[in-house]
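Morning run. Coffee first, then this:
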Amino acid sequence: MGIFWGFYRTPEPQRNWPAIRDKVARCARHFQLLNKMLVERQFLCGNTLTLADIPAGTSLYRYFALEIERPSVPNVEAWYRRLQERRAYREHVMVPFGELRGRLNY
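And here it is:
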């Protein structure tokens, strides 16, 4: 179970904090790797949006919206802002998910 399900979807009394902390740390390491990749480019494969940005970029919205501690990743944050400038990203990825807090069922 990842951060979204383990932390956000699981009701507080049922949360497995050691597992959540482990997932947050793993996620932070992955975003730090992405941060290094984005040092000299605006998108994952260069300076234009490609298919690679779409699946990877979908995780950014929830990652940055959750109330978790995360390391500073300025290049990833800049990439996220570039994705947010795109209407399709705002309409199809940045979908409110507040009604899912603490709900394990669909």
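DSSP finds five helices and no strands in the chain. Good start to the day.
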